[in-house]
Amino acid sequence: MKRGLEHEGYAVDVALDGVDGKWLATEQAYDAIVLDIMLPGLNGYRLCGELRDAGNWTPILMLTAKRGEYDEAEALDTGADDFLTKPFSFVVLLARLRALLRRGRPERPVRVEIGDLRLDPAARKCCGETARSR
What we know:
Layout: H1 2-7, H2 18-27, E1 33-35, H3 44-53, E2 60-64, H4 69-77, E3 82-85, H5 90-103, E4 112-114, E5 117-120, E6 125-128
Helix pairs in contact: 2-3
């Protein structure tokens, strides 16, 4: 995949585990991240969620051998922008990356805070201060 993307003109960095992937994603500015779910050290779900919690809104395409609808839903709910299962068509991977790159990197929080009210649509939670100090 690295060689294919480079052949298409993309600059590519590769991390072999989630810990190195997190370091790269926090130390470099990327246009997009292709993230496997089943990474050693820190899986793709956690890595994606931690990047989003830290305010990193780089578009993320989850690429994985996991095929279940719950896997896809969890990837999207943790903040992934797209999901592609293995085996995949390289032509489709390129098209999905182009689509993500067209959208750019929107600054959008997963959680919304309004006053003392916190909404987390992915987790289906709403929290707020129940009693105020007088």
